[in-house]
């Protein structure tokens, strides 16, 4: 089920083909997951999403690739994005996440979910010492 | 502003005092931030929250302390918990988060927020390959 | 799967029947989607929901019907309401949403999701010039 | 700070005046809180909101008035609606919520927040026995 | 579909077996639902989650067991946790929730969802009278 | 209060200066709001955010500029992003949003918030007719 139609011939569009080629080259795999297949309904949206995500997640930056996946999963869980949780948990495993790290990620995410509720319920004033701006 | 009253004499309660002493000892600091000061309105809730958070965040586990703070911030941002974002950003800095790491955290959190919206809008079926269960 | 039982004979209840008749008349179609079929487990809740939604979405107002559907979808995506995204995307198409408009809607929704995360992470003070109250 | 202007003379509008009179009569108090004062920028929106909320919260129904307030607070905490948490916590106190009940409410809300994160992270299939529909 | 593997022999682990025994004893039933079956991938996370939830939901406290289930459902709906909504709606029924109470719960949850959006849109200042802290 | 420090001399950095110049030129105004001033703590994040938002919101596309602002506000309200609601409500007014349109936007956003809660509570199966994929 999706809100857009899947186009079996999407790659006959050169813009879609170029993105799919880059996905395959970046991941060193022929597999293209459903997100990109469905997003191909609009080549411009496909391009800006893929290159945007690739720049953030695949290029070297201050945080290492696995840490970035863990953060991505944490946001996706909190936003209740089922597809995102599945795909980025798989990505994190591919980058070395062990069962113990997965359990620890869930433990921290659950602890934050718990105290976020407490603080949003208590409406406690922010301590001035936390202010940087 | 808060939904509970701050008790200036909270520490005269031995249960509150024991928790506050443990907070000071754990952090090697006399400073106790507003979350715990206000939570002292119910000593049992204070106890289970502090010891629960301490166990997850301060005890050695599969993920290192700074990574756990980054995950905590990611959840807190997504839940729009202002106090939590402030206090855990301060905690992350105290554990070594640089400006570059902070910017990278925000970049990943924002990218996940962006694609979470796309996927929740597209309602794409989860690829069977992502299934572990 | 649902948390309430579907009642095949729901329309034998005159209150349910009246609402279903109004749905059919308003939409000029015999099709009644699952939301209303399941909501019929409580005729009063069915009535107040249908007439409330109809008043807002079907009566002439300051915004045109398609714009209202786009706003509805934007909220439903952000709340991760799968059914709502599906049903209101279909409604928007029926009111003239093209593929290009759908892609643009998703682009704006994703951009807002991205900057919402940045701002909730930065906790920037609101500029006084934005204050109207 | 607000996104709409407060109208000091709002009650000179007879529709606003009628709603404000009903608020005062329903609550047996002259105090009108900011939500209604600001919402008066659009008399129709003020009317449908006040009468809608009053019908659900003030009329006898299957759940008692205090239980309804606790549910209202739980949703408001989860949606991070600061004003709503403040106003409905005050309403719950006025209807008999003690400090111990407040702490218990927060404890349940925090526990749900914690397990919601775990389940959204695990993506566990729903047991068929839970299905009613 | 799940992000963790289901272990058919999980109960051969004595820590898992002890938790499952306690679940069966607490509920006076042999049925163990998927949440606990899948969570057994990490015995420590299983233990802290089960004993944490049991303490809050099954031990006598200021709120009665059914009210606590209604609050749990309210949070789970707002967080869009499908599994949690299903399992806690079933739990609430087992504790006496009637169809009329279910409808009233949904009515209050929906009303809060509506006004939360209005207040988050209006950004109304909190009335000083609501401040307790 | 912010989680990053405001740099009064940010524009001495040529990358920051180039973005600020583009903001001023695009808006035909000397005013730069706090989001961009604080985001300047990381010039790369400032660049990708500003040019990303400008491309989506300021370039001609399938939806008109005001409709895009209304969608942006709808997402920001649902994510409880206070700054975003303030700044994009101001932007929508600048693009022609009247009080009546503002009220209608809030009415639709609130109606969606209400039915999102109902559907997430009912967990109704999606009608096959809504499936496009």
Quick structural gist:
Six copies of one chain form a homohexamer. With 133 residues, chain A is mainly α.
Observed structural traits:
2 domains, 65% helix, 6 helices, 133 residues, AhpD-like, mainly alpha, elongated
Overall description:
6 copies of one chain form a homohexamer. Chain A is mostly helical. Helix content of chain A is 65%, strand content 0%. In chain A, helix 1 runs parallel beside helix 3, helix 4 (65-78) packs antiparallel against helix 5 and helix 4 crosses helix 6 (99-122). The termini of chain A are far apart. The interface between A and B is large, with 68 and 68 residues.
The percent of residues in helical segments of chain A reads: 55-70%
- The fraction of residues in strands of chain A falls at under 5%
| CA gyration radius of chain A, whole angstroms | 19 Å
- The average pLDDT value of chain A, as a whole number, equals 97
Q: How many β-strand runs of chain A?
A: 0
CATH topology descriptor of the largest domain in chain A = AhpD-like
Number of domains of chain A: 2
SSE order of chain A: HHHHHH
Number of helices of chain A: 6
Secondary-structure blueprint of this entry?
Six copies of one chain form a homohexamer.
Chain A: H1 14-27, H2 34-39, H3 43-58, H4 65-78, H5 82-94, H6 99-122
């Amino acid at each position: 089920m999706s809100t857009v139609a899947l186009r079996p011939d999407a790659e006959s569009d050169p813009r879609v083909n170029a993105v799919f080629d880059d996905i395959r080259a970046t991941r060193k795999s022929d597999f293209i997951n459903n997100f990109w297949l469905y997003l191909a309904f609009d080549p411009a949206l496909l391009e800006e999403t893929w290159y945007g995500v690739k720049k953030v997640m695949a290029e070297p930056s201050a945080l290492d690739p696995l840490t970035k996946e863990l953060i991505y999963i944490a946001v996706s869980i909190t936003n209740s994005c089922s597809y995102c949780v599945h795909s980025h948990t798989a990505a994190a495993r591919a980058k070395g996440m062990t069962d113990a790290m997965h359990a620890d990620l869930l433990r921290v995410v659950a602890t934050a979910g718990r105290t976020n509720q407490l603080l949003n319920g208590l409406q406690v004033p922010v301590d001035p010492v936390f202010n940087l701006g």
